[in-house]
Amino acid sequence: MTTTTHEVPVPGQAPPLSHRPGRWIDAWNPEDPRQWAEVGRSTARRNLVLSIFAELLGFGVFALWGIVVPQLAAFGYTGDAALTETQQFWLISVPVLVGATLRIPYTFAVPHFGGRNWTVISALLLLIPTVGLALALQAQAGFPVLLLVAATAGFGGGNFASSMANISFFFPAAERGRALGFNAAGGNLGTAIVQFLVPVVVVWGAATAADPDLPMAGWMFVPVCLLAALLAWLLMDNLCSAATDKRSFARALRMRQTWLLAFLYIGTFGSFIGFAGVFPKLMHDAFPEHGLSLAFLGALVGSLARPVGGWVADAVGGAAVTLGSFLAMALGAAGAIHALQAHDFLVFMGSFLWLFVFTGVGNGSIYRMIPAVFEATAEDRSTAGRDATKRLAAGAIGIVGAIGAYGGFLVPQSFSLAKAHSVSAAHPHGTIVPALWAIIAVYGVMAVTTWVVYGRRGAVLRDHKI
Predict the structure, then answer these.
(1) Rounded Cα distance, 109 and 72, in Å
(2) Which pTM value belongs to this model?
(3) Of 90, 101, 249, 411, which has the maximum CB count within 10 A?
């Protein structure tokens, strides 16, 4: 085995940066100004760009069924083969259920396999749900097979956790937040991109736009997943220093603040994932005359708003931004109710885009709140204590992200339940309006929780600009 060393070791100093076969890097220390200036920054940025690409594909696969389901009837799932409303909502929501569950093991996979190695593996795993979707649709498979294939799309949801964990090891603390913000926003854009491309790709070569070649929605991913795996294999790196602190993770599980923040993140990130997945179906059901060409806009504006939420939270405090986000999201949901009742497409689009913007803003602000909350509540202010607090916050971020993702399962399931129990002469297929009222109530509870814990006069954390 050969090792490439960049400098000669000096007694009493940290060991020099070195490379081993398999693109493993020893002695990585982004907090070392000299190492960061000479090789660290360029290495970290290269890994970040490739990570964003792989994560973007993961989110695209994660959201794939949301844009496929509204087109199933046009592809031939009619008559005896038609899927019920409940079955359609299950196909949209089950990837989120699986993806949220995979977030924790995917996080621990990075230190076990190496960030570069796991990026290769996770990119290749995306071939299972994409090829599976294409083959299942070509065979006109029934609902049980479709549900199984849709569940494997959850692999794409797990990619977010491993990608974020991996990139966090590459950057110094002063630049880590910005890098993670770009990584998250870039990955989230995968939802918008797939919702834009699939309606276009599936009509290439089709006799008419009303007769889509829906298996192409799966086949289109095969070359890019292989490309992502190849680029990761050739150009990304594994860090020997990457390690997940299991003790801090376990300690974070016992902290009250972890669960409070996870509850709030269900409202922001869960709403983004849930609404992004179901938005094409909602649009298709309520306004079929407008098609699916604009369905991608919701996920697009929500993704772009995420870093904005973090920047504003840095200036005025995450709690204030989060509180404002919940109030704005409730307003957007109320606007959607009015649009559905008045059958007004422009108000429908405006209300949902407003809602998506503030789910993104809230995502960014809560991610900013997590380290601030644990820093403010830390009892040990020594250097060792601050380091322990950072590890605790890192563990909490993983937990909050995983639990928050489950909200993306609850949103479409609430719509399914509402439609099933609101069938009437006026709404022969039911309506999602009762679910939207329930969601508004939940946002109200979350806004009150944010104010009581972090904003009201007399709250312990009020003066810490959480």
Answers:
(1) 35
(2) 0.89
(3) 411
